[in-house]
Amino acid sequence: MHYVFDFGALAQGEYPALLLRGLLTTLALTGLAWLLAFTVGILLAVIRLTGSRVANGIISVYVAFHRNVPMLVHILFWYFGVPQLLPAPVADWLNSHGSEFLLSMVAIGLVTSAYVCEDLRSAVRAIPSGQAEASRALGLSFFKTMRKVIMPQALRIAIPPLLNQTLLLFKNTSLAMAIGVTELTASGREIENATFLTFESYAAVTVIYLSISFLLMWGGASLSQRYRVAGGR
Amino acid sequence: MWEILKDNALLLLIGQYPYGPVGGLAATLGLAAVSLLLAFPGGILLALGRVSPYRIFYLPASAVVYVVRGLPLLMFIFWAYFFVPLIIGRPVAGTTTMVVALVCYESAYLAEIIRAGIQALPKGQQEAGRALGLNYMQTMRKIILPQALFNMLPSMLSQFISTVKETSLAYVIGVQELTYAANQINSVLLTRPLEVFTLLALTYFVLNLGLTALVALTERAIGRKRSGQAVRVATT
After folding, report:
1. Is it the case that residue B235 has pLDDT exceeding 60?
2. Which of A77, A174, A189 sits opposite B201 (nearest CB)?
3. Domain-embedded: residue A5
4. Residue B177 φ then ψ, to 5°
5. Per the CB < 8 Å rule, is B72 touching A172?
6. Per the domain annotation, does A32 fall within a domain?
7. How confident is the model at residue B231 (pLDDT cuts 50, 70, 90)?
8. A178 touches chain B (CB under 8 A)
């Protein structure tokens, strides 16, 4: 077997732009889904902590549903199923504004929100209940206690698992290609189809994924170093 | 939805089996079980590398684990799609591709679980083994690994759940499993995607909920066994 690698071909014509566009789509998808995941996740965690039985039950079903069903199935569900539920004008608007990007973003974000909620909840449980009791005794309301006493500590404890979720979220955006979003993996496939340089195009995509993942891992490690809970574990 | 399930139950369960490859739920579970079992030897080797005091073992094992953690599974599937036929010199079925990709991916995750199990054991175990005259590998094989693997059974079962979910990606390369079957039904019915995909999601949900219950059960059994051991050690 004699094979000459031809990475130069990838640097020609439209291919660098295609890769870059794929990368930007991946990053946009990651960023937006991350915002959604953390907003919903934090909200759910706080609601769960209020101790309402009904809310607790509903949220635990939500979390179980999102954690036990594959993300790809959620993406397919949102892409194929949900537009059927929406009123026609909204569905039309979605279709003409890149529904695959928006709906995969929602699916990925909501699935990750379930994991974020669970990570936060276990971080809050790691904080001694005396903290909450003391701050309530000092006259802070439930939400003030959450915002000023519990959450700042819980978020620090939760930094490593939450960063891990961020990394997983970044990797999982590749699933959006199943419904036709041209993110990084899909643009790699496109270049492969056009050039037949399978090894080179996959290698390029792999290197891009790895560099961003390593950046996230490294950033995560230094972040959790910096924000260690003083006197904590 | 009920009617869709009634009409397509067989397709969802075993695919087109007598007339084609096994598909549906059976293929999903089979793929996950075979992949995780095959990933086991690799996982143990990588874990041994990760806890090894020698840099020649530690560095490559860590590199493999970090690279796998940094790449999407989909990339592994495409790499396997490209490399496996090249290595064995003939085209292979999508199922084989998927198993190869999953084995590579899962062995790194299993390795991290096993490593955590090894590191969670008290240091005295290793020291006692060495003091009794066993060498490093004997200590690992006869004292450390049996305990670490046993204690980590719940985590490995959780990994099995993750693997079940990950097999859905096989749909992307056209392997006939549960997600593929649902898509087949969807393209036959055409107008009822909401019901079809709700059904698909519920199937995975019930399956994995059952498996989660199993995890909780083993967790409790192992917890009981371990606390029993602790008491025995304390009283003798």
Report:
1. no
2. A77
3. no
4. -130, -160
5. yes
6. yes
7. low
8. yes
